[in-house]
Amino acid sequence: MSEPILSPHAKIFVAGHRGLVGSAIVRRLEAEAASHLLLCTPKELDLTDQTAVEAFFIEEKPEYVFMAAAKVGGILASRLHQMGWQARIGLAEGLEQTYRWYVENVASSR
After folding, report:
1. Is residue 86 part of a domain?
2. How many CB atoms lie within 10 A of CB 106?
3. What is the DSSP string of 31-71?
4. Which residues have a Cβ under 8 Å from the Cβ of 12 and sit 6 or more positions away?
5. Residues of the chain predicted below pLDDT 70
6. 2 in a domain, yes or no?
7. pLDDT at 40
8. How many separate domains does the chain show?
9. Does 48 reside within a domain?
10. I want to staple 40 with a disulfide (CB 3.0 to 4.6 A). Which of 3, 34, 44, 76 is the partner?
């Protein structure tokens, strides 16, 4: 196995850790001996709630973030989409904005 890229003691947030891609990321990080993984279910952290995500970043201060969360919902989501419903902001964009805000307002003040 090659030299690890991330410190095994770094705080690493994996959004979507229970999905196909997210669980593969977690398995790889665990194989690399990552000891401080931040894993939240949708009930623990609603990634569509920017205020909650900002609070999470402020409290946990992750050093690395892997964005593997996806929109799921099956038939209901499909029907809502057909009726014209859509989120105001995409999940990836929301996380990007939150992380930029965190870096500019919290991380820079350390």
Report:
1. yes
2. 13
3. HTT--EEE---TTT--TT-HHHHHHHHHHH--SEEEE----
4. 6, 29, 34, 36, 37, 38, 62, 63, 64, 65, 66
5. 1-4, 71-81, 83-87, 108-110
6. no
7. 95
8. 1
9. yes
10. 44
